[in-house]
Design a protein that fits this description.
Number of strands: 9
Distance between the termini: 30 Å
Largest sheet: 7 strands, mixed
Strand content: 15-25%
Number of helices: 8
Structural class: alpha/beta
CATH topology: Rossmann fold
CATH architecture: 3-Layer(aba) Sandwich
Shape: globular
Order of helices and strands: HHHEEHEEHEHEEHEHE
Helix content: 25-40%
Number of domains: 1
CATH superfamily: Response regulator
CATH class: Alpha Beta
Radius of gyration: 16 Å
């Protein structure tokens, strides 16, 4: 897992350059403090200049993935690739491939999959559930329950229901929530530096309400 930055000023400079302020109109300033992982391609303006919501989400997903550790059980063997899947109608286009270009996750090559069915994604390590349909999210959460899969939804409610990560809007800024309980159940370890930037939500109780 990448070592946390020692200086926020150096991190912001490395990530955004002089034009970082344009991006911070769309995303919280704290997101800029998630550094580009060591060994990744030069991305001095990785966040600066991004104008699409899903360009930004793809870039942040690449940071979240690099600051998450999967158990050995998530991979069949040492040659198994890291599979990133989009479940549902793909909102990213080629933004995901661009955001992860030249990177390796868990020291593995990356394979991208688009599908409308969760069945057959048993070999995926990161699944983005497209859309904001709560029933679809619930079905996906149930399908991947107990598996070493980082499940990401496009709503805060998704994280409250049991996905590990949920994107949401707050004060016209894109943010993300993390369910640490869901991550633990999936055997995923998330960097403390990453958790500091997220809204932490609890697992739902037996009644279906989010535990406080």
């Amino acid at each position: 897992m990448p070592a946390p930055p020692t200086s926020r000023g150096r991190v912001v400079s490395r990530l955004c350059g002089a034009t970082c302020s344009a991006v911070l109109l769309l995303v919280p300033a704290s997101w800029a403090f998630v550094p580009a992982p060591p060994g990744s391609p030069a991305r001095a303006n990785a966040l600066a200049g991004l104008t699409s919501e899903y360009q930004i989400k793809a870039e942040v997903l690449s940071r979240i993935a690099r600051y998450t550790r999967w158990p050995d059980s998530a991979f069949a063997d040492k040659n198994t690739p890291f599979v990133i899947a989009v479940l549902g109608k793909d909102p990213f286009g080629n933004h995901l491939e661009n955001a992860f270009e030249g990177q390796r996750i868990a020291d593995r090559r990356i394979v991208f999959v688009r599908t409308t069915e969760a069945v057959g994604l048993g070999n995926a390590q990161l699944v983005f559930v497209a859309g904001r349909d709560e029933k679809v999210q619930e079905k996906s959460i149930a399908h991947f329950a107990g598996q070493p899969v980082l499940l990401v939804t496009d709503t805060l409610r998704g994280a409250e229901l049991g996905a590990q990560v949920g994107f949401y809007l707050e004060s016209q800024r894109l943010r993300f929530a993390i369910s640490t309980g869901s991550a633990k159940k999936a055997g995923l370890e998330m960097s403390s530096e990453l958790l500091k930037l997220a809204k932490i939500v609890a697992l739902p109780s037996a009644s279906g309400e989010v535990a406080q």
